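During the reporting period, our protein records have gained a C-alpha cell line. A sample record is set out beneath this paragraph:
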Amino acid sequence: MRAYLYIIKCSDQAYYVGIANDIIQRISEHQRGKNKFTKSRLPVKLIYKEEYADKSAAMKREKQIKSWKDRKAIERLLADEGAIV
C-alpha cells in the first residue's frame, strides 16, 4: 500500500513532518485539531509530499528528515523541489 511523507507549514511558521496512507484525510485531521503539535498552530498548509510504495519506506524518509534538526535543511529541500513555502 502506498504511503506519503508530507510537510505542512503551521500558522506560526513551524514545519511538521509526517507520514500517511491517505494524505487528504490526514491533512484534514490536522486542520480539525486532531494532532497535538499542530492543534495550537492552526491553520496548517500542505507544502510538500513524496510518494512511496509502502509505509516502511516513507517512515525511513521521515526519520531522515527529522534527524536534520535544522530548519534551513528542510527549507533547502523545499526550495530544491520547488515547494511552496
Q: What stands out?
A: The chain has one domain: 3-81. The chain has a mean pLDDT of 94.
